[in-house]
Design goal:
CATH architecture of the largest domain: 3-Layer(aba) Sandwich
Strand content: 5-15%
Helix content: 40-55%
Radius of gyration: 18 Å
Protein name: Short-chain dehydrogenase reductase 5
Shape: globular
CATH topology of the largest domain: Rossmann fold
Strand order of the largest sheet: 3-2-1-4-5-6-7
CATH class of the largest domain: Alpha Beta
CATH superfamily of the largest domain: NAD(P)-binding Rossmann-like Domain
Distance between the termini: 38 Å
Number of strands: 7
Largest sheet: 7 strands, parallel
Family: Belongs to the short-chain dehydrogenases/reductases (SDR) family.
Amino acid sequence: MADPKACKLQGKVAIITGGASGIGEATVHLFADHGAGTIVIADIQDEKGEKLAASIGNCCACTYVHCDVTKEQDVESLVKSVIQLYGRLDIVFCNAGILSKSMQTILEFDLSSCEKLFAINVGGVAATIKHAGQAMVKANTKGSIICTASIAAGLASDRNTDYVMSKSSVVALMRCASTQLAQHGIRVNCVSPGPVATPALCGNLGMGAADIESMFSSMFCLKNNGVLKVKHVADAVVFLASEESQFITGQNLVVDGLFKA
């Protein structure tokens, strides 16, 4: 366990959606290392989520809750149960999301597929911010809400149009929410990772993590620092969740080593 003096999230109550794997999993571990009192992992990957929660041990209260963020009632129930059990909610990491399953160029755009992707990547984030924000306002909690966007949000891509649209929407949603919640002392920010070898990306590309890292390694302008890892993104989330960023809101923190495709 980290030195208590270095713990940035001491005693905080946090929800991490999409917390069972990838960036979410790395953030669960880092939140625990930084002294979070309670971590609630929300996901639909039940086996992974339960195993991860059990692995955290006695350093904090870590539980897993099945939550489909496309169902607003699931999100509402999640937030209400956390408030009932722990009395407050300090941090929410809106991390649940999926990648585009096809190239999705505009000339062959599949609206049905786009709607499914938006339901998770945008609708799920909106529902989570809504219910977390309501709980924080009611409890007068000066909380922190962080959303996972992507460097894709700022790209003019020749493919994956729906994914780029969804992550652009997350950034726009964050900016609106941060403006509307600022009067309550609630901060809302984004992290935008570059390409990182999560299980989702590995599955999408049909490649192993080492192969993906090798493929992208030459595209990071930041040299002699290795390649982008999920922990780098989780480090940024901890910063935005902690008091170190207490006067930062409405920002999109890019974590990509100055990636150039």
